[in-house]
Structures are given as structure tokens and as C-alpha cells.
């Protein structure tokens, strides 16, 4: 029997989920969360660095997704200095690092899809 079949629901951080896939997708699902984690997998980054690397994400969305990832314990936010301009860096926590194999698998699959069904281009049109 699989772990998710041991009960009707899984309770994580006071939220109920119908299966373990739902837990995982709540933590890293959506258009930008996995992309943020991917960009933090090798080094800590400042907010502006993430924004430059993630073409198409709005400042509001990036800010909200970073906040959610921090609340869920996948990333940490370190603030340096007390007066503006302050330096803020984001990095993966140990919990966040535990999803690197998953990110690597998503990257591999995405590369295969791009090669088989798409093309690499420098134009957004």
C-alpha cells in the first residue's frame, strides 16, 4: 500500500490534502514557484537577479511567490543592513534542496519536449 493510501487525507501545516501529489503541487506548483527554486538551486540570489533571470514574471508575482516559498520553508530570506538600501538574498533551505532531484527531472523532461515538439528561439514572437 502506498503512503497516501494510509488515510483519506494528509494534513500538512493545518491544511488538508486528498493525496500526497496535492501536497507537492501546493508547495511547488504554479507557473513560477518551480522556476524560482530552479534558479536558486546552485546559489543564493538577490530579488533583482531573480527578476532578470525570469523573463516574463511581474514584480508582484515574484514577490508573492517568494513570500509563499518562504512561508512553506522551501527558501530562506536573509536581510543585510538596517537602513536602505538594504541587501536581501534568497536561498534554498535544506527542505528546498530536497526537491532538487525533482527539479532536475522536470528540467530533463522540459528539454526533451523542447527538442521534440518545439524550437529554441531568442524572439518572444
Walk me through the topology.
Elements: E1 10-12, E2 15-17, H1 20-28, H2 33-40, E3 45-46, H3 47-53, H4 59-71, E4 75-80, E5 87-92, H5 94-97, H6 100-117
Describe this structure in words.
With 125 residues, the chain is an alpha+beta fold. The model has no long low-confidence stretch (mean pLDDT 91). The chain has a domain at 31-117: Orthogonal Bundle (Arc Repressor Mutant, subunit A). It is built from 6 helices and 5 strands. A 3-stranded antiparallel β-sheet has the order 3-5-4. A two-stranded antiparallel sheet has the order 1-2. Helices cover 47% and strands 16% of the residues.
Describe this protein with a few key phrases.
125 residues; alpha+beta; Arc Repressor Mutant, subunit A; 3-stranded antiparallel β-sheet; two-stranded antiparallel sheet; 6 helices; 47% helix; globular
Task: Quickly describe the structure.
By secondary structure, this protein is an alpha+beta fold. It is 47% helix and 16% strand.
Q: Please tell me the CATH architecture of the domain at 31-117 by its name.
A: Orthogonal Bundle
* Through-space gap between termini: 48 Å
Overall pLDDT confidence: 91
Q: Might you state the CATH topology name of the domain at 31-117?
A: Arc Repressor Mutant, subunit A
Instruction: Please outline the major beta sheet.
Output: 3 strands, antiparallel
Task: Write the element-wise H/E pattern from the N-terminal end onward.
Answer: EEHHEHHEEHH
Estimate the global geometry from the Cα principal axes: globular
Which blocks of ≥5 consecutive residues have pLDDT under 50?
Answer: none
Strand content: 15-25%
CATH superfamily of the domain at 31-117: Winged helix-like DNA-binding domain superfamily/Winged helix DNA-binding domain
Structural class: alpha+beta
What would you report as the Rg, rounded to the nearest angstrom? Answer: 17 Å
* Main sheet: strand order: 3-5-4
CATH class of the domain at 31-117: Mainly Alpha
Question: How many β-strand stretches?
Answer: 5
Q: How much helical structure, as a percent, in the residues?
A: 40-55%
Amino acid at each position: 500500500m502506498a503512503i497516501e493510501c494510509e488515510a483519506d487525507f494528509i494534513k500538512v501545516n493545518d491544511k488538508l490534502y486528498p493525496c500526497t501529489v496535492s501536497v507537492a503541487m501546493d508547495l511547488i506548483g504554479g507557473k513560477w514557484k518551480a522556476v524560482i527554486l530552479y534558479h536558486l538551486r546552485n546559489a543564493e540570489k538577490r530579488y533583482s537577479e531573480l527578476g532578470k533571470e525570469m523573463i516574463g514574471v511581474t514584480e508582484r508575482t515574484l514577490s508573492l511567490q517568494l513570500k509563499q516559498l518562504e512561508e512553506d520553508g522551501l527558501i530562506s530570506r536573509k536581510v543585510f543592513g538596517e537602513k536602505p538600501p538594504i541587501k536581501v538574498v534568497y536561498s534554498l533551505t535544506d527542505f528546498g534542496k530536497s526537491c532538487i532531484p525533482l527539479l532536475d527531472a522536470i528540467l530533463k523532461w522540459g528539454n526533451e519536449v523542447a527538442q521534440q515538439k518545439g524550437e529554441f528561439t531568442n524572439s518572444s514572437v
